[in-house]
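Lab notebook, bench 4. The sequencing result for the construct came back, and we need a structural model before the next group meeting so we can plan mutations. Quick request posted to the team channel:

Model the 3D structure of this chain.
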Amino acid sequence: MFGSQTSTEATKRARFDLTYSVRWNLLLITTGAILYSFAMKAVALPQQFIPGGFFGVGSIIYYTTGWLSPGIFFFLLNLPAFVLGWTKLSPRFVLYSLYAMVATSVSYELIDATLDIREQLHAAVACGVLNGLGGGIILRSLGSGGGLDIIAVWLFQNFNIGVGKVYFAFNAALYLFCLAIMPIDQVIVSLIMVFISSVMVEHTLSLFSQRKVVFIVSDHSEAIAQTILDSMKQSATFLRGMGAFTKREKNVLMTVINNIQLKKLEQITFTHDPHALFIVENTFSVLGSSFSKRKIY
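Done. Here's the predicted structure in token form:
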């Protein structure tokens, strides 16, 4: 028993160390930056999609005033965001985010490719998927892509507002303004791209954190729990319940598993009790214990 606990603790520590490893975070940021840059260079640029985020704001200011350039406006808009990240999140987060900005800029300049997609709708879907996947991978690190990413992470950490929702809300307001100065078709396909990108960011962030919460109501809950412990090496919790009709108390078994384990748990449950009540709920994220660790920026 002691050896098993030691092995489990070692596994937890290894997972924790990987999350905070500099090499691992740089790998995530670099991979995400390349995917993001490829989407922008190979799909968005040929299709002339309107960029979202702070760069989109900089572009609009430039188009309407003729001052400076979108790149300079993007840099200026990033300054208060990085100050927010430095004071409210951490210097480490800001430094990783700065690396992400450099990696994105360099890979964008080095990539020389164009996806020959003739239908704008198809291009919006492809760009949204690649863009969101790249952005999500960056945000799985201890940094961000800078700009709006920093604000989105701060809102998520303090108010549990989804990162993808922040992107979509910000860009929706931006594109509503664009309707006054740009062709409506161009704005619509850009909105489609941003919506798909926002959804993809959310799915990428929850990819390894989603689990199933299972509640089992049975007169044989103790036997089911023991089988779960023995054959699945999975923990479980008893909750006290009472039948509304019978007024009889019984244990309600709760456990958290992944999709692969679900059918095995179902088989265990109904093998012990064909009349059991088996309730499954999706969870966006499970943190703590032997699951994912809370990420501290």
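The chain has two domains: 2-206, 211-283.
Will bring this to the meeting.
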